[in-house]
Amino acid sequence: MKIVITGGKHEADYIVSKLKKEHHQLIIINQDIDFAEYISANNDIGVFPGDPTKAYVLSDAEAHNADVLLALSDSDTDNYITCITAKKLFNIKRTVAKVKNPKNVELFKRLGVDSVISSTYLLAQTILNESSVENIIKTLSIEDEKIVMIEIGVEPEHNIVNKRLMDIKFPSNINISCIFRDPHVIIPKGDTLIKADDKLIIVTTPNDQEEIVEFVQKRK
Amino acid sequence: MKRNKFIVIGSGRLGSNIATSMSELGEDVIIIDAVDDSFRKLQESFSGYQVVGDATDLTILENSYIKQAKTVVITTDSDNVNIYLAHICFYVYNVPKIFVRLSDTDKGKLLEGTMIKAIYPFNLSYSEFMDLNDEEAAE
What is the pTM of this model? Predict the structure, then answer.
């Protein structure tokens, strides 16, 4: 693929080093002369010094008809102008803008930028995903870490919902010792059905803990 | 929603003078600038609203009645910011009349396919020189 990378510092350097291994045709444009030289020396590749929001810079770098353009500068507005210039004047198929302000993610997409990346936005998403870990409320270590007791919340989209325990192929070293199904506590048998919003109390070994959490939380 | 607001973004020499004149003509003028200090260029006769803030933040634009704008004049000192704001006014808020000042005549290509009108000080100065030069020659 023909890939244009404009602006940015360490993120540009990192992406260049990753993409260079994949043998893409890379066109790198950077306004910061010192950094342009650094990227050039570090990756043994040519870098165009210049402002990518100016059409003649993209033209000199022969960015026409590239498959992808990544705009990584610290200015959201400049990244927008770079992407729109690339699309309108250089027939570049996909444009990707980095933004500092997470509110610009939706706005830039609406104005015609194909992908918009905001670290804050991604961070928020990650935190939202991580918070599902809160469903694993307690890990209780017993007997010098030889066994652990974990509590896992079952969500409606989990694979094990509405199955009988005997029909689920659990990993080895697992014992579901009881199920909290508000307001009841159930001591499970083979024909006990797992339901959404159950809390499973599982006794296992520290080594198998991760595998079990992953297994229980597997989605349909 | 009635569109009756005249919005100026960028209170430099051009923006503040346009805002003052339109205010004198009885328009409902709102002028936005990121720097509080910029409004000193407004004349005594200016009777509109001043908003301090970064117009690239949609919250600031919406608080400045952008949804009720019939005209927006964009005169910040950055061409990139001016084009970005013009695109937001055109594509997001469907403002009927948009004027944007651009230093770089090449940037006008980004306005193709829109109803946004560009003002180029370079072109105006250049043609003024040519006219003055012709007058000299004719004398």
Answer: 0.74
